[in-house]
Specification:
It contains 12 helices and no strands. By secondary structure, the chain is mainly alpha-helical. The model is unreliable at 1-9 (pLDDT under 50).
Length: 277
């Protein structure tokens, strides 16, 4: 899992690991989510009220399975068809449209609470659609899915941190920077000093907590789903381990797992154990 250079390159858990009857729908749901991360230009005069009105209208259109302006027809039509075909909740599609409003222009989250709110609005509806497609609809299991969605989202944005910051997007709470006397320019320039390491260490704890909260679902899935999720779960944690081994330097070189680390992930996935690190 190399670190991507843009949102288009983000890893996609459960994108291709489906039966033939489910595969096209899963891909349609992923294309919807990915396209909304880089929506088409917003109409109107560019004022805050105009943008808010635009996305409010797009949200209603998505709720009613009507044509959108935010993404192309080749994206919205298959997504609507997937929802109808598998009797999924259209509100979960629409929620992502509403959340994508926050991806317009400069992106900042003042506090950890604000960042968590965005993850709940953006990543969790997408994950719940995929979970419903997989037949995971028990209440307690959905809560675990929500936690895994947070973990995958935060890790993905960790990997795109250098690119995001240059694009004016920051998916780390501003208060974390202030508490450690870190300037945005240091993240932009890849200056991995002690303050930056403290900020990124705290972010890694946030990710580990999310994956830890989601872990119990692994034992209650069928074999095929369980192996797929275990591969993503262990693989994601090993990517996080690699970031920590590099002392949180996500700028100098791509974050890639060695052949040895990939074997570890395989052993953990299949046997639940690994070779000595």
């Amino acid at each position: 899992m190399p670190n991507p250079t843009s949102t288009a390159d983000l890893p996609r858990p459960f994108y291709s690991e489906w039966s033939r009857s489910e595969s096209s729908s899963a891909k349609a749901l992923w294309e919807w989510h990915s396209a909304l991360a880089r929506p088409l230009p917003v109409g109107g005069d560019g004022t805050v009220s105009s943008v808010e009105a635009y996305f409010a209208d797009e949200y209603e259109r998505a709720r009613n399975a009507e044509p959108l302006r935010t993404v192309r027809e080749s994206v919205w039509r298959p997504a609507y068809q997937a929802v109808e075909r598998h009797d999924l909740d259209p509100e979960l599609l629409a929620a992502q449209v509403r959340a994508s409003r926050h991806l317009q222009g400069s992106v900042r989250f003042l506090t950890a609470s604000e960042l968590e709110d965005f993850a709940r609005q953006w990543a969790i509806p997408h994950a719940r659609l995929l979970a419903s497609l997989a037949g995971i609809d028990y209440g307690w299991m959905v809560k675990r899915v929500d936690e895994l969605a947070r973990g995958f989202f935060f890790l993905a944005r960790f990997l795109t941190l250098p690119h995001d910051v240059k694009q004016g997007q920051l998916f780390i709470p501003v208060t974390d920077l202030k508490q450690n006397d870190v300037q945005l320019s240091e993240l932009r320039d890849g200056d991995v000093n002690e303050g930056v390491r403290r900020v990124l260490w705290k972010h890694s704890i946030r990710i580990r907590d999310a994956f830890g909260q989601g872990e119990p679902i692994l034992k209650d899935l069928g074999l095929r789903r369980r192996l797929t999720l275990k591969r993503w779960w262990y693989g994601s944690l090993e990517v996080l381990n690699e970031i920590e081994r590099r002392d949180f330097d996500v700028w100098s070189e791509p974050i890639q797992l060695s052949a040895y680390r990939k074997i570890q992930v395989y052993l953990l996935t299949v046997f639940g154990q690994s070779t000595t690190a």
